[in-house]
UniProtKB/TrEMBL annotation:
The keyword DNA-binding applies. This is DNA-binding protein. It comes from the Bacteria. Keywords: DNA-binding. GO terms for molecular function: DNA binding. GO terms for biological process: regulation of DNA-templated transcription. InterPro entries: BldC-like (IPR048048), DNA-bd_dom_put_sf (IPR009061), HTH_17 (IPR041657), MerR-type_HTH_dom (IPR000551), SinI_DNA-bd (IPR010093). Pfam families: HTH_17. Residues 11-55 form the HTH merR-type domain. The keyword DNA-binding applies. It comes from Cellulomonas soli.
Amino acid sequence: MSAQHPEPEMLLTPSEVATLFRVDPKTVTRWAKAGKLTSIRTLGGHRRYREAEVRDLLGGIPQQREADR
């Protein structure tokens, strides 16, 4: 019998999340402290964010209209 291994969960750094939202990485950290985004701590104490959760949050933000640009 072979054991089924689930797909590894993709994690993003604060800088990667900040780039997606076009904000400063410290803003992402504040969102995590406020509970708007779940963070995972690495063994070294760094924050990482689940890509699926970040994408869901990003999908809930209204996009800029072409006329506003």
